[in-house]
Amino acid sequence: xxxxxxxxxxxxxxxxxxxxxxxxxxxxxxxxxxxxxxxxxxxxxxxxxxxxxxxxxxxxxxxxxxxxxxxxxxxxxxxxxxxxxxxxxxxxxxxxxxxxxxxxxxxxxxxxxxxxxxxxxxxxxxxxxxxxxxxxxxxxxxxxxxxxxxxxxxxxxxxxxxxxxxxxxxxxxxxxxxxxxxxxxxxxxxxxxxxxxxxxxxxxxx
Length: 206
Hints:
This protein is α/β, with parallel strands linked by helices. It has one domain (3-202): Spore Coat Polysaccharide Biosynthesis Protein SpsA, Chain A. It is 36% helix and 23% strand. It is built from seven helices and nine strands; from the N terminus they run βββαβαβαβαββαβαα. The protein has helices at 29-37, 51-61, 77-87, 105-115, 139-151, 171-177, 190-202; strands at 3-8, 23-24, 27-28, 43-48, 66-69, 92-97, 120-126, 129-138, 166-170. A seven-stranded mixed sheet has the order 5-4-1-6-8-7-9, sandwiched between helices. A two-stranded antiparallel sheet has the order 2-3. Helix 3 (77-87) packs across helix 5 (139-151). The two termini are 25 Å apart.
């Protein structure tokens, strides 16, 4: 069994509205991630920030994923990761940010393969830059460490790399699976929405 969590609890400050509800070619952004991941994993969890967002998400999910809420008053990716890991049914779990609508099967499968015998597998963009929110983690080894970090008040997912044993997969390897690195593209502005809509129109089979 494989699990995945979608982190849909951010403030979306730059967008000015809840990113999960942003319309992309007639479909809310959350649906893009759910549509793809529900076909790739056995267990899918969406993490919402509060009850208000959760009620809105329920209408979109239509039973395709389980919904949980952040169980901490703190804000940040690590809060969502912990909440999602507590609900995940599998020991290996893919973490996905709500603002990346394009998900490639080959990329996710490769991450799960590379996470074996490690606490997780992440893409290494540069020597000092990784993608902790496009990664697979071993829940049993990472959850407790994440909770300990959160108790210090740190809510960044990047700090996990200093506490656990990760398999760092090169950006060159990712490019061999996703030539344009479009799976890492994230939406922060209306300009990004326009870009991704034009991309999807040009490549409807992506």
